[in-house]
Amino acid sequence: MYKHYEGTAKKRSNDNESPKKRKNLLHFRDMPPHLQFNPYIFTGYRPLLTFWGSINSLFYLHNETINILTHGIPIVYILVTVPGLMPWEHIESRFLPWCHIIGAVSPWIGSFVYHLFMNLERGEVVYYKLLQLDMLGIWISQSFGALPMVYASVFCLSWVCRWLILSSYCLLSMWGLYKALTAWSPWERRLCFLLPFVMRVLLCGLRYSPLGGGDPASLVHVILQVRSVSDILSALGGAIGAMHIPEKWFPGTVDMYLNSHNIMHVLVVMAVYSMHQATVRDLLWMAHVDCRTGHQPTDTFGGLQDAAEL
Questions:
Q1: Is the pTM of this model over 0.85?
Q2: 221 is in an annotated binding site
Q3: Same domain, 187 and 214
Q4: Residue 134 pLDDT greater than 50, yes or no
Q5: How many domains does the chain have?
Q6: Residues 111, 225: one domain?
Q7: Alpha helices in the chain (DSSP H)
Q8: 34: which DSSP letter?
Q9: pLDDT tens digits along 197-225
Q10: Residue 115 labeled ligand binder
Q11: What would the mean pLDDT of 58-71 be, rounded to a whole number?
Q12: pLDDT of 108 strictly over 50
């Protein structure tokens, strides 16, 4: 059965790699089983392609174009702008800022490579390797990218409590990595990050207590509306992608754009932007807080620098 689909897709691949016929895209029924993951997207499928055929697909419209662009553009933007936006002059350690930068760009790199090369004519084995690369990028974002928030939350605790919580988070993240790389269904891939997500929610609760750390001026606007929303947006995007909404309601009408995977991509881009805003605030807060006296900066984005100079 697989050879039938593979033969059909390969038969049309040479025509599609020709500049004159590159828009002769395939129907869902023409694709091999491992590429038939959304039965409500009927048309716009690329055939099985060579490496250069996949690169060439950047320059014509198909049903993965939006997915590729919504993650390819953030890669360039983050690498060009985010390092310059970090408050390097106010912080001593470079580890947490670089965790944030790596965590911010990694999911887009993995997803961009996956969506661009998912139609390689190497078969199902290579496809699942690309899918694992995609999941690895998400894991790096969920683990390393969240470390500034996690560390800020426990910053003023005793070193025993601090390292106990950090070690627990690292162990849960490693468990999530194992589950991510061994998952075989969309729901399994999304639920593999559940335990680290729950721990981040608990740490958000800790920040409201007298023992918790983090930027106090942004507890409501950043922790509730930004940091929590970054996780909620990611979870919401994953749920939309797994349930195939809205194409499940309108089969074949949103094949090229506005389907569930397109929506998920936009939501997770918004989530990483929220993560960046909260991370910069937390880094500045940790640079100026005095845990021994309880003195805390009042405005990490506004008057903090002026107060420090005074």
A1: no
A2: no
A3: yes
A4: yes
A5: 2
A6: yes
A7: 2-17, 51-56, 65-85, 95-117, 124-143, 147-153, 159-182, 186-191, 194-207, 228-243, 260-288, 304-309
A8: G
A9: 889 888 888 888 888 888 765 554 334 33
A10: yes
A11: 96
A12: yes
Tokens describing residue 148:
């500034």
56: which 2 tokens?
């060439």
Given 57, 74, 98, the domain boundary residue is 57
Q: Are residues 39 and 77 in the same domain?
A: no
What digits encode the pLDDT tens for the residues 119-128? 999 999 999 9
Residue 140 structure tokens: 């790096």
Q: Euclidean distance between the first and final Cα of the chain, in Å?
A: 74
Range(s) of the domain holding residue 15:
1-57
Quote the crossing angle between the two packed helices 228-243 and 260-288, to the nearest 10°.
160
Amino acid 91 reads I
**Main-chain phi, psi angles of 242, to 5 degrees:** -70, -30
Centroid of chain to Cα 79: 15
**CA 59, 61, 66: angle at the middle one, nearest 5?**
100
62 labelled as ligand-binding?
no
| Domain co-membership, 148 together with 287 | yes
Q: Which amino acid does the sequence have at 43?
A: T
Q: How many residues does the chain have?
A: 310
